Each structure stands twice: as C-alpha cells, then as structure tokens.
Amino acid sequence: MATVTAVTDARKTDFTNVILTNPGSVDLPCVIAADQVRRIAKRANENPPYDYGSLQAPRLTPGTDAQQWTSSQRQSAVLAGCSTTLVRDGVVTLQDIVTCYHPTGEEPPALRYDVDIEKISTMIYNVDLEYNSTKWDGVPLVEDDQAVKNPAAKHPKDATAALYRIIDAAALDAIISDPEYAKENSSATIGSTNPKRLDVKLVFKLAGNANVISIDLVYGFYYGGA
Fold it and tell me: Quick one: how far is CA 49 from the chain centroid?
C-alpha cells in the first residue's frame, strides 16, 4: 500500500487519473486496470449516479488472504487518493473507486469519488445539449416582460424553464438531490455588459451514495406479567 499511495500522494490535485489496485495479484497492472475499467465504464454509461462498490472482476487473480489490505488500510488508501478492492468468496470485488485528488485542507475533497465526476459530467452534457443547439444559437433576446411576435425570439425565462427541465430530469435520475433548492438558486439573465450574451447559472447538490451503512441495533428482554 505504501508503494501505490506514494504515487497518488504525489498527485494531490489530479482528478483525472484513478489508480486501481488488486493487492498481491500476479496479474499485470494493465490487466488489473483494464478489467476494472470495463466494469466501471459500463455502469457509468448505463446508470451514472450508481457507484461501483460490489462490482465483481472475476477474471482477475486475487492475492492471498494475508496480502489483502485491512479495513483501516483501505480507508487510509482512499484518503491518500487510491482506489481499493476486496476479495469476497475468492472473487476480486471493487470497493471505493477514487481519483488521486486530495488537496491539503480540502475535506472532504470535492472530486474524490469517480462516481461524482460522472454525475457532474452528466449535468454538463445535458446543459450543453440544451444550450449548444440551433434553438438558442443567435436567437433574439428580450427581457421577460416584453411582448414579441417574432417566433424565434426568446426571453430569459425560457432559458430558466429549460434549466428547470434539466433539474427535474436529474432529480428523477437520482443524480441530484433537493431540486427545489436548485431551482431557487439557478437563473438565466441577459448579460449586463453584453446584450448578445445569455448568462446561465445552474446550482445543484449532488445526490449521495450508500457506500457506508451505519446501523444501530437496539434490543431488550421481554418480562412476563403486566
């Protein structure tokens, strides 16, 4: 673990690369990475907000039980920007898939988990799909309270309505949480210094993931009588 975290610790601001591990394996590093990536990519494409813990990589050769990292070692690895695996019933299973990103003083690191980057990327894609299109390119822009008869003209409120549709769709897909907050804090306005500019701001809260489940089990005894 010290060897691999030395690599990630030197990349504290790197949120592009992910170091995928398989402690004690005799497989080549490129094989270890490729077999995990193909599973990560498939899930990210099919269901972007769904994290990768419990995905199996049965083609990989696990190390011995003695070579596996302990729970505290895996936690230390994640904090150092290194992804982890767990061997379950002899099968290599993905656990925390994280980027190298862990700048000093940023806790928790905003770009630590790969799945969160997938969520953000999906939001960026949907915003680009809406606004980087012929229905917005070059259209006349007028204030919200101005009446127009030109069918091509648009108001800032039209852009805001498009934002709301993106927000609602993302909430339904469990990419974001608290869609009402996103709507209250997102906006579209005509530029204050450039009348040919539409300023769009999208604010949202990413949904979380059940990577850790904490359970309190409370019990007592039954006594007979009243």
Answer: 6
